[in-house]
Amino acid sequence: MEKKETLKDGTKVLIRKLHINDLDRLMKFYSNLPPEDRKYLRIDVTNKEVVKQRIKLTKAGNVFRLVALFEDEIIADGALELSGEEWRKHQGELRVIVARPFQHKGLGMILVRELYFLAIEKNVEQVVVKMMNPQIAAQRIFRKLGFQEELHIPDYVRDQAGEKQNLIIMTCNIKDLWNELEHFYSGSDWQRCR
Ligand SMILES: CC(C)(COP(=O)(O)OP(=O)(O)OC[C@H]1O[C@@H](n2cnc3c(N)ncnc32)[C@H](O)[C@@H]1OP(=O)(O)O)[C@@H](O)C(=O)NCCC(=O)NCCS
Question: CATH code at 27?
């Protein structure tokens, strides 16, 4: 899968699946993230071994990763993780991260849309996102897409600095997500005029 997309400011980007040989590109992307964006990720993405294991997991078949590239450099990363557990087989978890210079240009929304298509292919019925309290932009983007906050657990996780943070779990029915995505794109001049 490879798709060319145009961001709100006209920047052309390529969206494709993450390849096993993307390790160095991915490390460069992660190491260029500002500490504030890295702080709330669930693993230490500056550790090459950890990132390597993460890429390998995509081969196991439960995690699907997409990346966005600009001039052959990774500028955003998105994942759909299916639960291996029988009782949560209908669920898929989404994660998205966009490099600062490319934020606010619609790339996060584009990745969510592409992950939505993947989720449909994998028969996901309920989409889940998990984030820490300070990840305000993420909460806003997912609320806008129809996600509801289901759970807010105080001091449940630790950020990369070791500080305890509240965990927020939001969910959305896959059909409602499509309605919101359609609504978002039909109301957007940027996508209509492409
Ligand atoms: C969350 C994130 C992926 C959004 O990516 P993005 O490319 O900037 O998002 P978009 O440009 O597609 O914005 C979509 C909507 O999200 C909301 N949004 C995006 N950034 C925001 C911010 N900093 N503050 C408040 N709302 C924001 C807006 O409602 C926006 O729609 P609008 O531009 O029509 O107002 C990005 O901010 C990011 O990578 N943050 C750090 C990592 C993170 O928290 N990931 C989420 C874990 S699941």
Answer: 3.40.630.30
